[in-house]
Amino acid sequence: MLPKKVETILNEQILREDYSSQLYLSMASWAENNGFEGVSVWLYAQAEEERVHMLKLVRYINDRDGVAVIPGINTPPTDFGDIFVMFDQVLAHEKFISGSINEIVAMCIAENDFTTQNWIQWFVTEQIEEEASVKTIIDKLKLLGKNNLYMFDRDILSMRGGGSAAAE
Ligand code: FEO
């Protein structure tokens, strides 16, 4: 049985992962409409990954005899300015998510819920990878600069298997 406070904070994380999925879907759509095919493929796949994260939380809460609350959809922004600003926003968002995962770990410890503390480690590791991958993209973007955005876009396309929007 999940401690009530752990159930509550995990349900809050469902909302955040769901919003992450919607945010990246909106960014993917913006990128597609602004000529960044590679970036849109990366973001569409990222949106799918975030949905998988949300579903992991739903299943875990229910498996532990809690009640997963499926949130309503918050509408994300539709305009992201330019590609540099947008990826800075992606990194800031992932840092926010990492912080919220750390809050879950802290809550598990406070509530002596060592089962959830162990389970949530997958998310801790995932956040290290997600932040690192966005930082790599930002480094490439800075290296190539605004006069080489076509090359940047081709390069991002190769990060997702050359155009297949497969996500894991
Ligand atoms: Fe599920 Fe990118 O955090």
Structural topology:
Elements lengths: L3 H30 L3 H27 L19 H28 L3 H6 L1 H24 L4 H11 L9
Bound molecules: MU-OXO-diiron.
Description:
This protein has helices at 4-33, 37-63, 83-110, 114-119, 121-144, 149-159. The radius of gyration is 17 Å and the shape is elongated. The chain is built from six helices and no strands. Mean pLDDT is 94; it is low at 163-168. It has one domain: Up-down Bundle (Ferritin). The structure holds MU-OXO-diiron. Residues 17, 20, 50, 53, 94, 97, 130 line the site of MU-OXO-diiron.
Molecular shape = elongated
Tally of individual domains: 1
Structural class: mainly alpha
Low-confidence spans: 163-168
CATH names the topology as Ferritin
Bound molecules: MU-OXO-diiron
Radius of gyration: 17 Å
* Ends distance: 29 Å
In round numbers, the mean pLDDT is: 94
Q: Indicate the CATH architecture.
A: Up-down Bundle
Please provide a brief summary of the model.
Helix content is 75%, strand content 0%.
Defining key terms:
mainly alpha; elongated; disordered C terminus; binds MU-OXO-diiron
